[in-house]
Amino acid sequence: MAESAPQLSLAVGDRVVYPNQGVCRVFNVDSREVAGQTLTFVSMRREEDGAVVMVPTTKVSSIGLRKLATHDQVAKIFAFLRSDSDKADLDWKQRARTNIDRMTQGGILGLAEVVKGLQVLSELRPLPTKERELYDNARHLLVSEIAASLSISECDAEDAIDLVLSPPGRERPKRTAEEFKQVSASDDEGIELGADLLSLGGDLELPSDEEAETEEAAETAQADGEEEEAAGKGRRAKAGAEAKKASTDGRPVARHSKKRKGAAEGSKPKAEAKPRSAKLAAAHQDSKAKRKAGGARLAKPSARKKK
Amino acid sequence: MTLDDYDPKQIEKLCRALYTAFGVGCEQSTRVPWPSGVGDPADARKLIEHVDPVRAYADDKILYLVHKRLKDRELPSGTAPTHGYALYGKDRALVTTHGVKNLEEGLKRVTRNSMHQLGHLWDLYHCLDPRCSMYPPWTPSFASGDAIFCSFCRDKSEQKIRLAKS
Known about the structure:
The complex is a heterodimer. In chain A, a hairpin with a 2-residue loop joins strand 2 (22-34) and strand 3. Chain A is of the alpha+beta class. In chain A, 60% of the residues lie in helices and 11% in strands. The longest helix of chain A is centred in the C-terminal third of the chain and has 27 residues, at 239-265. Chain A has twelve helices and five strands. Mean pLDDT of chain A is 70; it is low at 186-274 and 294-307. Chain A folds into three domains: 15-67, Thrombin, subunit H (Beta Barrel); 71-181, Methane Monooxygenase Hydroxylase, Chain G, domain 1; 199-264, no CATH class. Chain B is an alpha+beta fold. Chain B is 31% helix and 11% strand. In chain B, strand 4 (84-86) and strand 5 form a beta hairpin. The A-B interface holds A 48, 74-75, 78, 81-82, 119, 122, 126-127, 129, 132-133, 135-136, 139-140, 143, 150, 152-156, 158-164, 166-172 and B 45, 73, 75-81, 85-89, 120, 125-126, 128-130, 136, 138-141, 152, 156.
């Protein structure tokens, strides 16, 4: 990547912008030996706090180091910020990815895009903490670069940005989600498909195997006579209920049907049913005992004893 | 610091409000004379450059309070109404009380404006929340808002103050 990118020639005294760090001034270019290799380093000092960064010349392009924006570029930035073109992506994951790319590789326009995009989004809803931090970072970098480029104070640079973003005498507008839909139309389609899949009334075509399984399940359930309601619901339901069966009962019913099959074929389910019958028997005996205590209907037990 | 005559009681109230907002001590130092050549309405940039310096600690922030109107600034994107001016991340800021006849009644507005400019000294930038004092000061809702910071700006200023103290 470093070979393909155009090489940036840097000399002492040049002002450059280090992505995500801010405006730096080159104060030295020299060769040093590192791990047996002789590398040429560009040493620069961040103007904000004087932190020193050393970058090998071979890495200058790949890390996104660039010259300070020119006056024309700054004028374009103001034109961009003034335009009502940018709508933020409503998909947070996509938005986060795009914004990170803009911050590192997008240049001054990338910073402006992040600021404007998040400001527009904040007119729809408050920004989450991470995006608020990102907005603050992007604003800070944009302000410092414009201030350095136009040789004005940061106060003037920020006010110049906000004159465009929030013109005097006007409150920021309230946005609606509909305004953002045009931008994220492709994402919305995906969401609609997801909603169809999730909705119970959608026309969902299941694979033939699953359909067969669900039908079998319904039949076996009916044959057993224990889940008449569920099966009845399955019969009565139209397209929506079929989808519901497929999405909610599909897997469980399929397993259930196997169990039922097993119940018809072998004796395992019967063995599993024993505890239930035992409980019923115990309950029955309790009721008998109560009846005995009450002195009512003593004839039947005696008749059973006779048997 | 004041460049005009103010009621000491009102200044005391302002100091209390700023102390509440930032959590650091705030007091009136002295009154300094107007520098020459700043014009009327005063040029904020010139005024803050030429005003008499005050002896203070390295991490002290100085707020100059003036009653004169400040001249609107011509910026690359238009003309900015000027209610104050600050040297970002440094030690000096300027606030005008022009348009506030009675500081007693307009204290909230002056406090909000002072918090805004002092916020810039603590590296705060303009905020997205209209209730926050760091909201752009030329918006219609700014003057009527409370003198408070949003949670993000408050946390950031506290962090910066802690860093400066350590």
